[in-house]
């Protein structure tokens, strides 16, 4: 009975209320959709679909704090492994990530080839290897401050 009362309340309060006016200026803050130029379209329409999906995700996530934390964690892990390697222990004392950027333009894939796949007991894809041919203009860059064991400091971009 309480469920029916809640449903009736929601129906009457929202069904007969005036429509919500959306602020038209809010739409201007979002970047418009950029179709792929003709010379960058792939031969396979599936690759174009991946490009459009990746372009959407890139625009949504490129400046998010979640992506920045993820990339910082991955870079930090890789640089710790480098420092703890045999050569790293001889030369590198410390590596500090000064800044990084994923770029302003989304990578554009021209070809995607599935090399192999591995399926689990339910016949679902567990792992796959794909070759991607991409053009990444104005791509990822990172600036590092590196302290060497013999006292020298350098900055690497």
TrEMBL record:
Localization per record: Membrane
UniProt GO cellular component terms: membrane; mitochondria-associated endoplasmic reticulum membrane contact site; mitochondrion
SMP-LTD domain residues: 43-157
Main location: membrane
GO molecular function: lipid binding
PROSITE patterns reported for this sequence: SMP
Xref: PANTHER family: PDZ DOMAIN-CONTAINING PROTEIN 8
Protein name stated in the entry: SMP-LTD domain-containing protein
């Amino acid at each position: 009975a309480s469920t029916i009362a809640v449903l009736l309340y929601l129906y009457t309060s929202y069904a007969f209320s005036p429509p919500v006016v959306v602020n038209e200026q809010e739409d201007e803050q979002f970047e418009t959709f950029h179709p792929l130029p003709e010379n960058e379209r792939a031969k396979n329409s599936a690759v174009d679909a991946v490009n459009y999906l990746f372009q959407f995700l890139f625009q949504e996530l490129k400046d998010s704090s979640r992506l920045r934390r993820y990339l910082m964690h991955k870079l930090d892990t890789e640089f710790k492994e480098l420092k703890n390697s045999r050569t790293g222990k001889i030369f590198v004392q410390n590596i500090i990530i000064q800044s990084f950027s994923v770029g302003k333009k989304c990578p554009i894939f021209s070809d995607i080839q599935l090399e192999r796949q591995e399926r689990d007991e339910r016949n679902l894809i567990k792992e796959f290897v794909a070759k991607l041919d991409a053009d990444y203009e104005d791509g990822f860059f990172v600036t590092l401050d590196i302290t060497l064991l013999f006292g020298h400091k350098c900055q690497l971009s």
